[in-house]
Design brief:
Radius of gyration: 18 Å
Low-confidence stretches: 1-17
Structural class: mainly beta
Distance between the termini: 66 Å
Number of helices: 1
Order of helices and strands: HEEEEEEEEEEEE
Length: 186
């Protein structure tokens, strides 16, 4: 049997590309380093605020106590373009967080309902000049795993991956996600 080198070389190149992209992400840590990264459609994505926009923190992460068990955990990561317009953002809402563990992102959510939603993720794409929201839900599930959730030290760390769907039916794949952030109490 003769092996043709071109297809094998192509497969090796594609496999190396994903590894290079994963290597470009911050390491998974658990001490509140203020890091986050993932692959969006196979390309490395990390939050970024352009220096001309003040260069502040590219994320907001906070928790607040609720009447139900646990706290509501909210995290927003923003990646700005050079023209002062956000290129994209990733948002997570976990309504009843009690500690480390995995949370399914597979229930219907409506961002307008704010804190009355189940756990969900939202990838917002602004690159076309219009905001396109991709939400997790029954037909576009995901998982977020909290490896550390500490309201005393105010640290949340974990991993995530999800598929999210826009109203037009298009989807976006977000994989190999990790975050290690300082929390605010609100």
């Amino acid at each position: 049997m003769r092996l043709y080198p071109i297809p094998w070389l192509l497969l090796l190149t594609l496999a190396a590309c994903k590894k290079d992209e994963v290597d470009a992400l911050p390491k998974a840590t658990q001490d509140g380093r203020g890091t986050m990264g993932c692959l969006v459609e196979g390309k490395a994505w990390t939050p970024y605020i352009a220096p001309q926009l003040g260069g502040g923190s590219p994320y907001v992460a906070y928790y607040r106590y609720r009447t139900s068990p646990g706290v509501a955990l909210t995290m927003l990561f923003t990646r700005n373009a050079r023209d002062k317009t956000p290129a994209s953002s990733i948002y997570f809402f976990l309504p009843n967080t009690v500690g480390p563990g995995s949370v399914a992102l597979d229930q219907p959510a409506d961002p307008i309902r704010a804190s009355f939603n189940p756990a969900y993720a939202n990838y917002s794409d602004y690159k076309t000049g219009l905001q396109v929201d991709y939400l997790t839900g029954p037909t576009a599930p995901g998982t977020l795993t909290l490896t550390r959730f500490d309201t005393v030290a105010r640290v949340a760390s974990g991993t995530f991956s999800f598929t999210a769907r826009a109203l037009d039916g298009s989807t976006v794949q977000v994989t190999d996600g990790r975050f290690d952030v300082r929390l605010e109490k609100r």
